[in-house]
Amino acid sequence: CFCKLKGQIGDCSCNVDTVDYFNNIKIYPRLQSLINKDYFRFYKVNLKKECPFWSDDSRCAMKFCHVKPCKDEEIPPGLKGRILKHPYSNEEMYVKYLEESQHQDCDSDVIDELGYLNTTISAKAYEEFALWQAYDDAQDNFCTLPDDDGDAQYVDLSLNPERYTGYRGPSAHRIWRSIYMENCFRPKNTFDAYISTSKLNGLCLEKRVFYRVVSGLHASINIHLCSHYLFPETLSFDGKGEGGRWGRNLAEFKNRFGPETTKGEGPSWLRNLYFLYLLELRAIHKAAPYLSSIDYYTGREVEDKETLDAIIDILTIIRSFPEHFNESTMFNGGSQAQKLKEEFKQHFRNISRIMDCVGCEKCKLWGKLQVQGLGTALKILFSGKFDEKNGYPNTIEKMPYNGNGKEFKLERSEIVALFNALGRISTSIFEIENFRQMMR
Ligand code: FAD
């Protein structure tokens, strides 16, 4: 079977079999139960944002593209109108700062004066500080800022599953082409939108990584539509087109990933999916101390406690994984590397903007969520002050962010996107095993 991939996953020391075993037995079932908890099910998103690149053709009439937003009474009480408090929010940093200044007051008369001065200056500068912090946060992000404007609505992800929608043709192709053509780094003299795997070796590690994560995401989306496919021939004739059977479509899977139909590229695309999995897994591993310190608040006490227990459980398993992706080899060659990192961010932010141009609401929902999840993973991997000897810090605890004194923080929607994105990739790897069995 072409999907029985063997050996090492490129740019990682990890083996495909190890990932299959670890994911299918240990991670997949735990992630499924975690992302069904209220905290992870409700995602706030604006599906009406204007496409910034071309006039929008997203008025999709296809029935399976429709997304059903939540009614107010369906949203957990703790997510409504609450200013979400994270362990290291701006306000808290400020209060901590004030406390520290006051503490200094007790030491001596001189410090007393300075302490007073500091406090007054800070109080005046606080508004400005907050403004700059918002600006800096935007610069640190790999994605555009989370949707939290007037048009953003909560969606229950479990009621709007990612699956076959029928979205295809010029609109879908324009999105994929723009992502590959305009936003992915390309080898010199390559004019095709889609880079063949043999040409990838001509790119440096960082640019290869960029291409591979995009290709991995593309593969995952296409696996989902094959594994939750609507077989039209079984549609019942009730006059409304209702009914039909959802199931795995092996022929579609073979067509999209088989070597004969993809000029030999299909298996490499599947390999890129494994690569993306390892990268996202490593990000969660790195942020584990931070992720276990969040309250996962929805206002439903028992559920919130269960969510935290499930998080601790899955983080423990992720920590036991033998071969994580090693980000310390990326962006570590002085000022050139920092320039490359900025370009990498810029390209990735463009991809997150392109998601607003997707012409099918359901595809847009899952596209936005997965791009945000991946952007959050990259933010985690490349945060902290870079050290020539050791690369980026190995874990994120109360880690000063980018060496400018700020502490690391994630918005709720980033955490929701991070785990759901891994949930999607993990499901794809699980589904590949199902297709393998069908082929046998
Ligand atoms: P496409 O998948 O459109 O690919 C275009 C070209 O890209 C291919 O011809 C091939 O040369 C190359 N290519 C394909 N896969 C890879 C890869 N993994 N790596 C590198 N190159 C590759 N459809 C649904 O039914 N449900 C969804 O939820 C859904 N979500 C989508 C989300 C987004 C953001 C986008 C852009 C599209 C989505 N689609 C979805 C549409 C789907 O991805 C395909 O575009 C559509 O099914 C048409 O497929 P295709 O065979 O023409 O090739």
How would you explain this protein's 3D organization?
The structure is a single chain. The chain has 440 residues and is mainly alpha-helical. The protein is built from 14 helices and six strands. It has a two-stranded antiparallel ribbon with strand order 1-2. Helix 7 packs antiparallel against helix 8 (250-257). The longest helix is centred in the N-terminal third of the chain and has 32 residues, at 109-140. It is globular and about 55 Å long. The termini are close together. The model is unreliable at 82-91, 93-126 and 237-241 (pLDDT under 50). The structure holds flavin-adenine dinucleotide. Flavin-adenine dinucleotide binds at residues 162, 164-165, 167-168, 172-173, 175-176, 194, 215, 218-219, 221-222, 225, 269, 358, 362-363, 366-367.
